[in-house]
Amino acid sequence: AREGVREVPLPVSLSATQVQRLASDPEGFARDLARPMPRPPQPAARRGTRFHAWVESRFEELPLPMLGPDELPGGGADGEGEEIADERELAALKEAFGRTEYARRTPYRIEAPFQLRLAGRVIRGRIDAIYRTDDERGERYEIIDWKTARRQDADPLQLAIYRLAWAERRGLPLGRVTAAFLYVRSGEVVRPSVLPGRAGLERLLLGEESWEPNDPG
To answer: What is the mean pLDDT of the chain?
Structure first.
């Protein structure tokens, strides 16, 4: 407690979300590692999780997951009124998704897990949807990450990690894999023009480069 500076070792295994936090706010990420704190339930995050499960069941013909006690109407701490509002929000997201082109396209893979070794560490995550769009040169893929929040400010670093992981898994050049965010509420598809490759991601992990969220480079 008397130390002015405390060195926090970086875990050997990181999630894609943790890599984003490390790149955008290394000091905040270090504080979280040094002193993990419980976070209050986030209705928007829960709604996003339920939306992802619904999309997966739509294409994979899987049963919808069982709801926990705090997800049943009137069962959460927010009360029945909040649960009704949450159900309406989820219904609106489903309706909005139905208006996008991806409602009529069948993914090649959905909720695809991956692990990627970068700078001596293992990065793990799960890709929302992958579409195969072959052409005369062979295999080609488009990675889509669903975003259900109202703000359209997702970090392209997430897509860079997904893109590299899938390209290396398939043994393809990065140019054969594209990646985009689908903001479900508006139906807008955002494709960052430039995403870092392996070398750039490793420099970020090693602290040799800085990263600004939503930086197109």
So the answer is: 82
